[in-house]
Amino acid sequence: VSTAILISGRGSNMASLVAAAAEPGYPARIDLVVSNRPGAPGLARAEAAGIATATVDHKAFPDRESFERALDARLREASIALVVLAGFMRVLTPWFVARWEGRLVNIHPSLLPAFRGTDTHARALAAGVAEHGCSVHLVTADLDAGPVIAQETVPVLPGDTAETLAARVLEREHVLYPRALATLASHIARNRA
Ligand code: GRF
């Protein structure tokens, strides 16, 4: 299944997906990495792994929807069937979400439905939860509220800061996302056959 990964920054989840997809028999093929930020460190990482990259700079467009039309055109030009958000820091409009319904997935650093939105690790600490983690979910028009397809849990430890907790969660993200993408891509391939 031809897959694109959308990033905005360092791209560590993207790198874990690219590494997993290089394994024989993995059901998703990473054909394109797109950043909305020129010079995002993840772009160089993708290039080093031999993946085609593109930049669609949201600042070059007058509004969200024209940015998304350009992004959508780039994805269609590459015959992409599945879109994976990995640290992509733009909220997508209902137009884009509807166009990719069931084929658009995100990873979020919390145990959804807890802590939608940003600053999840600091908020988890402030709330005093004993467990935290990450979730992979299908993207719907409501931010971080689409159906969860996989989760990993980590303990919150005494002395944790937002940084130590984020690092513990990120390690699990790098395991969870490749697994969840494999499940989704196999499902899409089966429905197509
Ligand atoms: C991850 O924690 C992801 O869950 C969140 O943003 C971070 C992106 O990190 N949405 P990276 O760019 O994949 O390294």
UniProtKB/TrEMBL annotation:
Alphabetical list of Gene3D superfamilies matching this protein: Formyl transferase, N-terminal domain (3.40.50.170)
Keywords recorded for this protein, A-Z: Purine biosynthesis, Transferase
Gene of this entry: purN
Keyword Transferase tagged: yes
Assigned protein family: Belongs to the GART family.
Function according to Swiss-Prot or TrEMBL: Catalyzes the transfer of a formyl group from 10-formyltetrahydrofolate to 5-phospho-ribosyl-glycinamide (GAR), producing 5-phospho-ribosyl-N-formylglycinamide (FGAR) and tetrahydrofolate.
Gene Ontology terms, MF aspect: phosphoribosylglycinamide formyltransferase activity
Record's protein name: Phosphoribosylglycinamide formyltransferase
Cited SUPFAM superfamilies: Formyltransferase
Source taxonomy: Bacteria, Pseudomonadati, Pseudomonadota, Alphaproteobacteria, Hyphomicrobiales
Keyword Transferase included in the entry's annotation: yes
Catalytic activity as recorded in UniProt: N(1)-(5-phospho-beta-D-ribosyl)glycinamide + (6R)-10-formyltetrahydrofolate = N(2)-formyl-N(1)-(5-phospho-beta-D-ribosyl)glycinamide + (6S)-5,6,7,8-tetrahydrofolate + H(+)
UniProt-annotated binding residues for (6R)-10-formyltetrahydrofolate: 64, 106
